[in-house]
Structure formats: C-alpha cells, structure tokens
Amino acid sequence: MSLTGKHILSSDLFSRDALEQLFELADVLTPVARGRQVTRVLEGAVMASLFFEASTRTRLSCESAFLRLGGGVTSTTGAEVMSIAKGESLADTSRVVSGYCDLIVMRHPETSAVHEFAAATNVPVINGGNGAGEHPTQALLDMFNLHQEFARTGRIMDGRRLALVGDLRHGRTVHSLMKLVSRYEDLTIVCVAPQSLGMPAELLEFVERRGHRIELSDDPETGLKDADLVYSTRLQTERFADRPVPYSDAFRIDKALVSRVCRADAVIMHPLPRDGRPGSNDLATDLNDDPRLAIFRQTDAGIPMRMALFASVLGVADAVRGSLSPATWYRPDYTGPEDAPFYRNVAS
Ligand code: ASP
Ligand code: CP
Fold first, then answer.
1. In the prediction, which pLDDT does 80 show?
2. How far is the CA of 211 from the centre of ligand 2 (A)?
3. 8 A C-beta contact, residue 178 and residue 189
C-alpha cells in the first residue's frame, strides 16, 4: 500500500507490511535524526504545524523531522492566535493553510476536528492528537522503539504479553497503539486501569476480533506480572469535565513495584509527559537509571519514524537511501548524560 498523498488520521491505516517498511526507512534515517548524516529529499517542501493544544514532543519532533529532511516549517500554537478566534471555521482555515504548504500536522482537543480539517483539503493531514481519540504518529514511534527493544533482548512482537496501564479511557496514544499491535499475532493485552478509566469497549472488541486475548485488571501489582511491555500513561486531567480523582499509590510505577513484579527484561515505556507534580502517582523518576526504562529512547525514536512517515506521505521514500551525506557539525557522542552506560553496556 502506498502512503503517498494519504491523510494519516488513524493508526488503523497501517498494515503490518506498511509498518515494517516504515521501520526499515526509519533505521536508514536514524543517523540523519542524530545529526550524523544529511539528506535534502524534501528541499523546498513546507510543513504547517497547527497545534491547538499543549505539546512539546509531537510539535517539535515533527518540525525537527521535516527540517532534517531538508524541508521548511511554518508553525502556530493555540486557537487564540489564529483567525479562528475571529470566527473562521476549521474548514476555511484548512483550505487556506493548504495553499501555503505541502503537509499539515495538526493537534486539536476535539476528536472530530482533525476529520473536519482533512475533509477540506487535498494536502496530507497528519493527526498529531485529536482529543481522546487517537495519536497515530506516537503509536508508530512506540512500535518502532518497541521493535528495537525486543530485538535487542532476543524477542519478536508475536506472542508477547503487553500491559497497558493507567488512563486507558482518555489516553489517545494507547487507542492508536491497540490498533497497531493488533496487526501482529497471538498477543495477550492486559489493560490495567482504575474501574472508571478502562479501555473503550470498541477497542477491546477490535483487538479480540483480530484474534488476541484481552485481560482486564485494576491492580498493577498483578497486572504487570510477566509482561514483556509495561506501557504506562498519564492521567489525562485535561479531558475531565470535573476535577479528576488522582491515581492511587498503586498506580505509581516505581523502582519498588518494578523490582517486585516485573520481568528482568520487561520494557517500560510511557508516551510522556509524565506528571511529576506531588500526588500525581505517574511513572516515577527513581527508575531513570534502570535500563528497562525506554522513555528517552522512545522520544528519540520519534524523529526517524516521523521522517520516514513524511518521506513516505510525500512520495520521496525511494530517494532517501541515495541522498545521504555525512554531517560536519559537532554532536555529542551521547545525547543525554544518562545515555552512555546504556549504550556502552546494555545495547552493545
Ligand atoms: N503526549 C501524549 C498525548 O498528547 C500523552 C499525554 O499527553 O499524556 O496524547
Ligand atoms: N507524547 C506526546 O504527544 O507528547 P506532547 O504532548 O508533548 O506532544
């Protein structure tokens, strides 16, 4: 299936083959993402990034990915600085912005907005997160990173036990992830959530229809046991009409819990941001030096995967391999101060 010219609104669009082709291209683009090689396959192309909701990773990594491909970026954040504040419709905005660029990445707090936006343009629209709906590019990068983590520890995706933990009701990253993992075979997916924050029934049914097993739990102590992947999520406080009830201590994924119940080779992921405010009981920082914690390898995976997606959607994927040349500027050997021990001792 060719991705050229497609809107990327849901992760359901990607077959297993399409995913694996993207992984291969993302591997080729990783040195470009790390600032060690250069490509100009998108020289002259322009991306518009329109973020109507808070973002650090998605907006900046999409922009960085497009720039690293040689393209240019025009960007706006918040409806209050757009003419939407003067009553302009999403459809008019979409048609207008489409005349200024070749690809649009958009995030909006309402689930339907990205669909309205895409219906008003022939320029490819990438869903950067639509309310409690989906976040397909996050799921793509999660799968790319997970595939690397499993490969490093001698496992494949098929047959794995995956624990998704936290606010599974409002967490759009896990909605997109459910659709992507279901492309593989023979999975057990353990949905570990407080009673009121369970995974939507249609997603559970969707995954079961594709032949996987679902287990439900409201207790991380038992739900995380034997899992190959622990995918933890933040309480989506911005999606609650009333003040949300915070996670109980039981949902705090920390060193003590992980050493009590997790496999020695478990992969621990989180889409981030993790909520570090007192009492939030999100993923704890005391795991930062645990090689099982993949969160920064996960964010790093976002650039090459988004580059692979943009190159594919804009029809230049086949030109990437022949376009690479060495970069000449300074780059540190390891991006973060805590990266060196992992890459020296674990990843080799
Ligand atoms: N950053 C992710 C999202 O926008 C996850 C989160 O915010 O908790 O969906
Ligand atoms: N993971 C993610 O989408 O992060 P941001 O909300 O910071 O973009």
1. 87
2. 31
3. yes
d(CA 12, CA 261): 32
Please identify every stretch of the chain with a pLDDT value under 70, giving residue numbers as ranges. Answer: 348
CB 288 within 8 A of CB 258: no
Angle 228-232-237 from CA coordinates, rounded to 5°? 165
Per-residue pLDDT, 252: 96
Q: Is 68 in the pocket of ligand 1 (CB under 6 A)?
A: no
Report the residue among 11, 53, 56 best suited for mutation to probe ligand 2: largest number of ligand atoms under 8 A from its CB: 56
The model's pLDDT over 162-187, given as tens digits with 9 standing for 90+, comes to 999 999 999 999 999 999 999 999 99
Please report how many Cα atoms fall inside a 13 Å half-sphere around the Cα of residue 312, on the Cβ side.
24
pLDDT at 198: 98
Q: Is the CB of 93 under 6 A from ligand 1?
A: no
Domains and CATH numbers, the chain: 11-134+302-330 (3.40.50.1370), 136-298 (3.40.50.1370)
Q: Which of 232, 175, 230 is closest to 207 using CA atoms?
A: 175
Do you know the residue count of the chain? 348
Provide the pLDDT for residue 346: 87
Helix/strand/coil for 229: strand
- Give the ligand whose atoms come closest to the C-alpha of residue 295: 2
Supply φ then ψ for residue 127, to 5 degrees.
-75, 110
Q: Is the CB of 129 under 6 A from ligand 1?
A: yes
Ligand 1 pocket member 166 (CB < 6 A)? no
> Nearest bound ligand to CA 59?
2
Q: Is 57 in the pocket of ligand 2 (CB under 6 A)?
A: yes
Output the CA–CA distances (angstroms, integers) from residue 305 to 3, 5, 68, 223, 249, in the order listed.
14, 17, 12, 30, 34
CA–CA dist 126, 114 (Å, integer): 8
Neighbours of 106 (CB within 10 A): 25
- Which ligand is nearest to the Cα of residue 56, counting in written order? 2
pTM above 0.85, yes or no: yes
